[in-house]
Amino acid sequence: SELPVEERVEDLLGRMTLEEKISQLKARMVPFRRMFFEPFEGLLEDQRKRLEESIMSMVFENRDIRDSLSANYWRKHWKEVVVEEEKYGIGQLSMALRPFSPKESAEFANEMQKFILEKTHLGIPVMIHDESLHGCMAKGCTIFPQSIALASSWDPNLMRQVSTVIGKETRAHGIHHCLSPTVNIARDPRCGRTEETYGEDPYLVSIMAVSFVEGVQSQKVVATPKHFVANFVGDGGRDSNEIHFSKRILREIYFPAFKASLKEAGALSLMPAYNSIDGVPCSCSKELLTNILRGEWGFKGFVVSDYGAVLHLYTKHKVAGTKAEAAKKALESGMDMELPESDCFEEVQSLVKEGRVSEKVVDDAVRRILRVKFWLGLFDNPYVEPDHAEKICDCEEHRKLALKAARKAMVLLKNDGILPLSKSLKSIAVIGPNANKLRLGGYSGYGVKVVTPLEGIKDKVCQDTRIYFAEGCELMGGSTEGFEEAIKIAKNSSIAILFVGNSVPQTEGEGRDRCSLDLPGVQEDLIKKICDTGTPVVVVLVNGSAITMIRWIDKVKGLIEAWYPGEEGGNAIAEVLFGDYNPGGRLPITFPKTVGQLPLYYNHKPTGRVDDYVDLRGKQYLFPFGYGLSYTKFEYSNLTINPKKISPDEEININVDVENVG
């Protein structure tokens, strides 16, 4: 263990058979398809009955049932999945610990590591991965605000604190590799995955990505910047559609955050995107994965596929005629591991033996994977402490940080003198489909105790204030049956606070791109009806991307963008509404007036002629990138720029005095 890592890697590689090498390029996960045909042993009677009613839909729509099933099945059959299928070892396990509590997870992780170390020939430890976009997705972990909300803080130090906690909780569970952060540039808010990003600006995205990687990897958890490259900006704002950008645009806008994540922060893994660029899928682009990634940027880590992306070379992109050809293209381009489980890479052994793929290509990929396993310390101590996991996950200190992050994420978009509200108002109407629901955003964990906006408001106001609640309408659909009750309580209240927006996966998120940015369902109609009562209205948006609102924004007195604010979001929203916290968040994306303007972003090149629409004169945006109000006023003075002219490789110093005059 005292030898340099490179020597240990070469020593181990020299003792590995071809089969053992290829096993390190593979992953395994809970075999969901097989589970459906196994007896549902270990489940509660009512769960079993519900599964019988509609197995497929119920399993995927109800997380508790799905995870009870997967936990039960995985505990029962993991040895045959890991060892009987992979007697030579295994590179990774995918989402193997998600359905378990922190202590159970750590115990199970230790059990799996011990078995693999003792039962496989060379005893190479396994890496376990999961998602940790804004909190580890395993049970019992702290849920922070969604990525776009964290970006609204414009605070890289906060991001580093958050990601350090994410790293601590992830590793405590026994998970070593997180498929985060998402560092794609969000230039079209119609994409359902805009919520996962840090916004539209390459610099802001870069500094947030660097902070995330540094924090997570400080806890010996491998970060994976994704999706390389330009994944969320296909035609029409559609995720993973073909990209046809120039090399200059790629290098100026879409490469910087990845380059910074790797070169500045030292990220040890990377995930290519599903999309193609000029007809070449990113998952088999030698230009991206070898020439640029390793040749130009000197990347020493390993590349993992997005889930099913290698197979997509055959089934979707049609650049491979067989699974074997897909594996060959991906591997020779620089892909090191197929996730979530080996499919096309099952053909690698025959490809090598037939002379269609050089064993050197396999060796290079294995080196990169082993190097990271040594960095993780798995060969010296692959185990974690179950009691520590139970103690640290979602502890009081981490919840306080979640509250701090949620506060700093709040963006005040409009205030006609109505905010902050008095805590001693006579009565408050809390209305809307997002007022008392757990809206956490995509790639969210379970939540230990998630505070809804309604709960936060009830805890904040004085005991004499009457709180009335009505949902008003559902998130989607055309029913207005709930309007009557909502209008009634609004008329009888001093103020009406409406919580509207979106939810993942109902109206946005992965696989949920939109052609309209209006509030879904009849939420706009609900806002108008409540405004018509004459009661002052404050709207709080709970969502993950831009909203168009020109048909109702002039009717409301106040507007707050809360995003998906995490487990302490309800408390943070209440603190902002009632003045305990002065909002200071800034938008990381541009809000358009209408979808016909898209894509719309602040840092576009100068136009060659007309920069306007016939039917939309003047200011193009509803709210620009960087916009955000507060409850006070600031004055700027004594601006100095030195020097006033610089060459491309020189630095410039800009100083300004900022005074709080509110």
From TrEMBL:
<keyword id="KW-0378">Hydrolase</keyword>
<protein>
    <submittedName>
        <fullName>Beta-glucosidase</fullName>
    </submittedName>
</protein>
<dbReference type="InterPro" id="IPR001764">
    <property type="entry name" value="Glyco_hydro_3_N"/>
</dbReference>
<dbReference type="InterPro" id="IPR002772">
    <property type="entry name" value="Glyco_hydro_3_C"/>
</dbReference>
<dbReference type="Pfam" id="PF00933">
    <property type="entry name" value="Glyco_hydro_3"/>
</dbReference>
<dbReference type="InterPro" id="IPR017853">
    <property type="entry name" value="GH"/>
</dbReference>
<dbReference type="InterPro" id="IPR051915">
    <property type="entry name" value="Cellulose_Degrad_GH3"/>
</dbReference>
<dbReference type="InterPro" id="IPR036962">
    <property type="entry name" value="Glyco_hydro_3_N_sf"/>
</dbReference>
<dbReference type="Pfam" id="PF01915">
    <property type="entry name" value="Glyco_hydro_3_C"/>
</dbReference>
<dbReference type="GO" id="GO:0009251">
    <property type="term" value="P:glucan catabolic process"/>
</dbReference>
<feature type="domain" description="Glycoside hydrolase family 3 C-terminal">
    <location>
        <begin position="410"/>
        <end position="631"/>
    </location>
</feature>
<dbReference type="InterPro" id="IPR019800">
    <property type="entry name" value="Glyco_hydro_3_AS"/>
</dbReference>
<dbReference type="InterPro" id="IPR036881">
    <property type="entry name" value="Glyco_hydro_3_C_sf"/>
</dbReference>
<comment type="similarity">
    <text>Belongs to the glycosyl hydrolase 3 family.</text>
</comment>
<keyword id="KW-0326">Glycosidase</keyword>
<dbReference type="GO" id="GO:0008422">
    <property type="term" value="F:beta-glucosidase activity"/>
</dbReference>
<feature type="domain" description="Glycoside hydrolase family 3 N-terminal">
    <location>
        <begin position="17"/>
        <end position="372"/>
    </location>
</feature>
